[in-house]
Amino acid sequence: MIRIEGIAAFVAVVEAGSVSEAARRLRLSKSVVSERLAELEKSLGGMLLHRTTRKLTLTEDGTVFLGRAARIVREIEEAAADMAERRGTLSGPIRIAAPVTFGRMHLGPALYPFLAEHPEIELTLDIDDRRVDAASDGYDAIIRNGPIADSRLVAWKLAHSRRLLCASPDYLARQGIPSSLADLNSHRGIFYTNRGVADWRFQTFDGAIVVRAKLALGINNGDMLRDAAIAGLGIALLPAFIAGPAIREGRLAEIDVGHKPEAEFIYMAHPEGRNPSAKLRAIADHLKKSFGDPPYWDPVG
């Protein structure tokens, strides 16, 4: 007999990339996950995964079985959630990925009261600045700042996200205050490397223009990007949700070069073709209300 626990273990191992990570996500021991996987293969009469000391890869049978197995697991989870929602309860597991700095500064404080109000929701929040694949990595949704380029995702806007060109008062006193896009070419820039060093895009009457200042520092973390600007290393193009407090405190100054950076948003996105659960919609609605319009973090509202 094929047991649903074995199917769930198999899907989790494939999505996680390892038995250890799958065990962590399922909150089971590694040995239990391995036993369930072995029992499933015995029931099916074939190997689903090639195992080596370094990685797991799908067999031909595993590749064929995976699609239906994943649908079975999702449908059972959705059916259980539907039953709970019929009783007026939001419950069950949900997995969301979000960026580090936004998660620490704004997402966490917004989510904590929601989770306290709905204690039967089992949220796993993965905080990581890397661009995860929501579908293949097994996330119910991702939260990101900026454009959503993946056509396989359905995006909901949670809040506007202005980006502000800013530097420390000390840097501007030493190097001068740029007043045009052309002036930026002679300044030192601090860039967020997860978006590339050419992400200074501004809106003009002739369309978007990319400006490339001299590289002073490339970094893949928003907190350190802000701190480097405060330390006077150069100019940074920072989201208002990161730069806002430092601007209000006078540690950073916003720079006006006559053109605004391209508009962006805070998004929640879920894989296309997957019916979002009521609890995911409830989380999105709660976050929109918590962030406000305009968002509370914007230094000028």
TrEMBL record:
This protein is called: HTH-type transcriptional regulator TtuA
Q: Name one GO biological process term.
A: DNA-templated transcription
Q: What does the function comment of this entry state?
A: Transcriptional regulator of the ttuABCDE tartrate utilization operon.
Describe the family membership recorded for this protein in Swiss-Prot or TrEMBL: Belongs to the LysR transcriptional regulatory family.
**Record has Chloroplast as a keyword:** no
Identify the residues that the record assigns to the HTH lysR-type domain, covering every copy: 2-59
Cite the entry's keywords alphabetically: DNA-binding, Transcription, Transcription regulation
